[in-house]
């Protein structure tokens, strides 16, 4: 596990543009996506962030790298200023907040840019 985390500090970090993270910019788009995967047993990790949030920007490349490593997991990014209604649905009160969803239901949450905790929870819930 240490080498996985250490790889995030390497210069070869994935940029958000080269990741598998899907960004949603409208509630309609989000609800359509949610309806298509609500019965899926795949783990979905939602990154609730904001452009003005320093810790969000800091963990963004880490989240992108995780999306490339865990190809069986769905990675989503939602800007709380764009989709405040979605953030309210998941009771997001601080950024970043990572919500883990399976079968359409929230199963876990990480509040803050805690990459080790997020990694542990992804590994625990993805199987």
* Structural class assignment: alpha/beta
The shape is: globular
Largest sheet: 5 strands, mixed
Residue stretches low in confidence (pLDDT < 50, at least 5 long) are 1-15
Strand elements, count: 5
Cα separation of the termini: 17 Å
CATH superfamily membership: Glutaredoxin
Domains (count): 1
Write down the CATH topology. Glutaredoxin
**What is the class in the CATH system?**
Alpha Beta
Biggest sheet: strands side by side, in what order? 1-3-2-4-5
Helical content band:
25-40%
Second rung of CATH, namely the architecture:
3-Layer(aba) Sandwich
Structural summary, described in words:
The chain has 127 residues and is of the alpha/beta class. The chain has one domain (22-125): Glutaredoxin (3-Layer(aba) Sandwich). The protein has five helices and five strands. It has helices at residues 2-6, 27-37, 54-69, 84-89, 115-125; strands spanning 22-24, 44-49, 74-79, 97-102, 105-111. The chain has a five-stranded mixed β-sheet. The longest helix has 16 residues, at 54-69. The two termini are 17 Å apart. Keywords: Cytoplasm, Disulfide bond, Electron transport, Redox-active center, Transport. One of its GO terms (cellular component) is cytoplasm. Its main location: cytoplasm. Residues 1-127 form the Thioredoxin domain. InterPro entries: Thioredoxin, Thioredoxin-like_sf, Thioredoxin_CS, Thioredoxin_domain, Thioredoxin_H-type-like.
């Amino acid at each position: 596990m240490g080498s996985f985390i250490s790889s995030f500090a390497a210069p070869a970090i994935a940029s958000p543009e080269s990741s598998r993270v899907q960004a949603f910019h409208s509630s309609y788009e989000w609800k359509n996506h949610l309806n298509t995967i609500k019965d899926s047993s795949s783990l979905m990790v939602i990154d609730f962030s904001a452009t003005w949030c320093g810790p969000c920007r800091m963990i963004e490349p880490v989240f992108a790298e995780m999306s490339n490593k865990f190809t069986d997991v769905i990675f989503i990014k939602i800007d709380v200023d764009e989709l405040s209604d979605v953030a309210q649905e998941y009771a997001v009160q601080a950024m970043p907040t990572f919500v883990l969803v399976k079968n359409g239901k929230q199963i876990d949450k990480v509040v803050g840019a805690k990459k080790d905790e997020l990694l542990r929870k992804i590994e625990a819930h993805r199987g």
